[in-house]
Fold this protein.
Amino acid sequence: MEGRSRPEPWPGATEGAPVVETRALTKRFGGQLAVDGLDLVVPRGSVFGFLGPNGSGKTTTIRMLMGLIEPTSGTARVLGEEMPRGTRRVLPRVGALIEGPALYGFLSGRDNLTRFDAADPTADARTRRARVGHALDRVGLTGAAGKKARAYSLGMKQRLGLAAALLQPRELLVLDEPTNGLDPQGMREIRTLVRSLASEGTTVFLSSHLLDEIEQVCTHVAVMARGRLLIQGTVGELASSARGRLAVTTPDTAEAVRVLKEHGVNDLAVLDDRVTGELPAGPATELADLNAALVRADVRVRAFGAERASLEDAFVALTGEGFDVAG
Amino acid sequence: MSRAEAAPAGATAVPASAAARRWGLSLLISEVTTTFRRWRTLALLGVLAAVPVLIGIAVKIETGDDGAHGGGGPAFISQVTNNGLFLVFTSLAATLPFFLPMAIGVIAGDSVAGEAGSGTLRYLLVAPAGRTRLLFAKYATTMAFCFAATLVVAVSALAVGALLFPLGEVTLISGTTIGFGEGLLRALAIAVVVALSLVGVAALGLFVSTLTNSGVAAMATTVGLLITVQILDQFPQLSAIQPYLFPHYWLSFADLLRDPVLWDQVLRNLGLQALYAAVFGSAAWARFTAKDITV
């Protein structure tokens, strides 16, 4: 579909043209730069986590990808076509949940879906009833389908919004904070749904402020702050970019700190009977040698191990700030 | 692409449904049913249906004591007691200056801004409804409401008129008498002209609706503009601009009750409405297709 070459080969990318590709995408509202020179590449078949603090430009980016707002400069290509020009051809193949669900309170859940489906000129009216029923079933709303949407709880509204995105088989699903307002059980269901959609071949673009959630379901991740893209890559790459920490549980904490310091472990901290520290850079340190050194120094070790860096560590290292701080 | 291939290849069914899809027939039907299922729409129509009832009862009470005619009130009111059909003309003349255009202003003003305010607009656009097609569906629905509202007034007036007063031959303004059947036809023609008189204010409301994300603000602005223009139309000092004000020729529908019919003012009215529809329809289209949807 694309004659031109991609800017850079994407490490770990699946084959085929990217589902989303932006170049120097910029949006200015008045004097404020909401999105600044964004180069985003979402590989086909990925579950792509889009992370960033509130106000970092995630939703503005999503709105540009969906053709709702026009970029100030730069380009956004979705499914191979430039937006917003390709809206008519691209969007029937895209399901979206943008900034929470929006429903007609005076219509039932089922009638809401029927209305959104009727707005899609490619949707077949003859299969509408069946497809609406299937979408309701998929998000577990069949029992409440006849209720007026204004009587729905936030979680039910969120599910109905998801159902609207699932009215047709989609190549790309854009889900902006899909688990907002859901209880833990509902969040688990959504995660399962995202995984099953991804296994059917749908690319999922998932924006969230819950790092935990991204880590659990996503294969790729991009981090935004203050309108700029800080990093993008596979979840594994990003997490390994933050160094892991060593944790030792021992009653002899003072002695353990001394020994570890000698072996180049930095940033040591003691909490009750737990000593943690940052492993030195480079592959030189063998964890088994560290443990042997502790034992040789008569440190009684109850537990010993390296804790894998979480996405949160990586995020804090990247942005240098707590997660929910507005950018 | 896969969807297009998946569509059934029935030889005759496909072209028809393809055409229906291109024109967004599904969207138009959805738009009309959604609008007419709202309590607010039904309440507006209910209020409009009540106006002829009130006029009819007032006229009945007034003439009950058989006193001297006051000569006040809307056009044709003095003839209602002789012929119930005149209640149709009286009610349309009474509702056209404010009640009808206000109802249109509410529907047209809310059409785009209301969806923007509730956020459903973004989901219609990513469906993707298409901005031009959605705007067309909104305008067509407002027009459908213009006809429905006029029809509600006319039918309610005819029913009340038939119940409270005798029906029969109609004496026209020019003095000629026509049969009841032809009278009914003329009433129908008048209803159509009244509905078409609202085309301009509907386009104006649609344009205002694309300017804001608040349905209430758009409705209030449209109704405010209507009242302002109606007041401006009253000052003789402003006679130079009055022929360009959209309500200026509204009451010319009475000319359809002459024999022969005087088309001059009626046509001028329809031409003015078409001009308003073209100007504000284009403005609404230019605004809506270029608008950033940020809510």
Q: What stands out?
A: Confidence is low (pLDDT under 50) at residues 1-15 of chain B. The radius of gyration of chain B is 22 Å. Chain B has one domain: 23-65+72-289. The CA atoms of residues 54 and 160 of chain B lie 9 Å apart.
